[in-house]
Amino acid sequence: MNELNTKKTLNGAEVTLECLKREGVEIIFGYPGGSAIPLFDALYDSNMKVVLSRHEQGATHMADGYARQTGKVGVALVTSGPGATNTFTGIYTALMDSIPIVVLTAQTTTPNLGKDAFQECDTSGMTFAAVKHSYLVKKSNDLPRILKEAFHVARTGRPGPVLIDLPKDVLAGVCSASFSDEMDLPGYKIPTYADLSAVEQAAELLKTSKKPLLLVGHGAMISNASRQVKELAEKLNAPVTSTLLGLGVFPADHDLSLGMLGMHGTVYANKAVLDCDLIFSIGSRFDDRITGKLEEFCKNAKIIHLDIDPAEQGKVLEPDVFLCGDAKLVLEQLLPMVPRLDSAEWVKTVQTWKKRYPLTYPKQGGLRMQHVIHTLSELTKGKAILNVDVGQHQMWAAQFFNANYPRQLHNSGGAGTMGFGFPSSIGASFGNTTGWPVCCIAGDGGFQMTLSELATAAIHKLPIKIFVLDNKYLGMVRQWQDMFYDKRYSSVDLVGNPDFVKLAEAYGIPGLRLKRSADTERIIQKALDYNDGPILIHCECEKEDNVFPMIPAGAPITSMITEMPKTKLEKPTGST
Amino acid sequence: MNPIQEKAHSISLMVANRPGVLVRISLVFSRRGYNIDSLVVSPTLDPNFSRMNIVARGNPTILEQIIKQLEKLVDVVQAKDHTNMNVVEKELALIKVKCSPEQRTEMLQLCDHFKAVTVDMTETSMIIQITGNTDKIDAMKSLSQKFEIIEYIRTGKVIMLRGEDKT
Fold this sequence. Notes:
The structure holds two protein chains of two kinds. Chain A has 24 helices and 20 strands. Chain A has three domains: 3-175, 3-Layer(aba) Sandwich (Rossmann fold); 196-356, Rossmann fold, CATH 3.40.50; 369-544, Thiamin diphosphate (ThDP)-binding fold, Pyr/PP domains (Rossmann fold). The model of chain A has no long low-confidence stretch (mean pLDDT 96). By secondary structure, chain A is of the alpha/beta class. Chain B has two domains: 3-81, ACT domain (Alpha-Beta Plaits, 2-Layer Sandwich); 87-160, Alpha-Beta Plaits, CATH 3.30.70. Chain B is built from four helices and nine strands. Chain B has helices at residues 21-30, 60-72, 104-114, 134-144, and strands at residues 8-16, 36-43, 49-57, 76-81, 87-98, 117-121, 125-132, 149-154, 158-161. In chain B, the strands form two sheets. In chain B, strands 5, 6, 7, 8 and 9 form a five-stranded antiparallel β-sheet that branches. In chain B, strands 2-3-1-4 form a four-stranded antiparallel β-sheet, with helices on one face. In chain B, a hairpin with a 3-residue loop joins strand 6 (117-121) and strand 7. In chain B, helix 3 runs antiparallel to helix 4 (134-144). Chain B is elongated, with a radius of gyration of 18 Å. Chain B starts with 7 loop residues before the first strand and ends in a 6-residue tail after the last strand. Classes of the chains: A alpha/beta, B alpha+beta. The A-B interface holds A 124-125, 128-129, 132-134, 136, 153, 184-188, 309-311, 313-315 and B 15-16, 19-20, 23-24, 27, 31, 48-49, 61, 64-65, 68-69, 71-78.
């Protein structure tokens, strides 16, 4: 193990790189700067792939997109001060969605810490609240242990971002520690199987249910529990609804699939939530987007909550049974204990709702975002990776893209980070081994937050289909102002948008323009057929369109709105 | 809102002895706008770990959630609410009072009653050291107000489980 150490003396930066390799890291997304030079110098002689982003936020979202696509730990590397602060949005985005990334931030030298040195910032202090764990490395010899711990913490249990702050002298100093130094994490526990008596209780509750509903969240995706979820749904004969981040775990095409629930979920999923006598959450955290008014949510239903994070128990609502463990392992415990339920009547009812309240969109008027996404879903037969930004188009992607596979829809769910879609599609593209096209679905607002990464996509000739769904508005905010604020459109008009086709061309990326609904299929097919790097499709969409169904924030599910109301609505009481 | 209205909870934590651990712990409280009444950090027999005793007030359900979130921190080995458990709870206070030679006898009687000791005495002042549970110290402080209290400091609560088991 120690051969590298005996050959020649390694400095902290070289040891850091060697540790990354030992953790299986194949790619780093980064941006250099003064304090980070020792690391970039070590990278010069290394065969590690380095992707130079155009902004540190971009690098962090790329690491995140790579992690979502591969299930491996994504790595971002930036310099101190502003380089580090620019990563915060990305770190927080990863925390909210439990994404394993390791962010390496360079730092001023240890004697300079706390002295307002050039580009010094208290990076670990500023990020405590946004990381799963973090380190400020004070001694070069701590590096092998700390890097090992960082990757272990990032990828295990409930995954999350880990930050390592690396002072320049720690990177430049000699490191004589062994790569086999052991981790020292006495307080870190990783739940695996659930307590058997709790599993038995869950099985007993399930047995008596006549109207069961499975709720699939991101936890099921992270633990690769697709097969177990499907087996359970089919064995019980229970309909399945998904959170935004759970979409794809259970095939959308399946008879028992109800698609997404919640604020912009399907009518039938929300009706099922209202009517079920038992809801079994597998790796969801009962976010306010899905529960609506909490006091009314599943008021008369039994609740089983499976989560790997013990702190989720009772955080939002008190379940009848809490199963703490890894979704896949716990479902394997549970599967042999449950029979087929007496739920045929219920499934029939739910399927009637599915037929009676399908997702629709207006066909008249200009180009509809829903139409673009639906066509993309049809033309690719659902075999595409979608990195979606945040806003109306995001909800339509969740509604109209037929996701049958896990890890094909990538969304900033918890954080709702505008600017996430495009850079994360670059990360996903680097990690993509499916052979399917990677598509970025972004609105005109979010795309402009991180569009500098067009250069990154161009130089690496990444085969990304960049859909800019342009309604020249911040559509989701405009929709709220339209529905709840007397159409007082305040700061939502994105007048001044560039011609995105010309913009792409300025980066050497071909652009296609889509304006008429009738051209949708032809243009999208053209984009899909293009195979010489990225291509941007500027979709000039209907300006004022609203996402339905909608449950106003904080309202009970019964307040679901399925079309634009004629009368003025009360302002929502829930958050955002 | 008067923080006294809510019951004080005694929380005991075993944490890895690392820089930053105190910030991570206090952030779990501050995120919800919760205040920490008292905090004691001390080494344990094993130098790799520290013991923290925190007293905080608030809604019991939220405090229960806070304890779960404390336990989730990588550097926290154990977090427990010891309120209403069979524990020894002690704190120490120093009370500096104005005390003329004529007032001394009364003050010393008071000390005697509370098993407090004088640790400093001048012509005009006295420092009293008292140990015990929170109520006892509150009572001593209250009665000392008859004399003018110049200043007053207390350590915060330390907790240990009764019997052979570890806290």
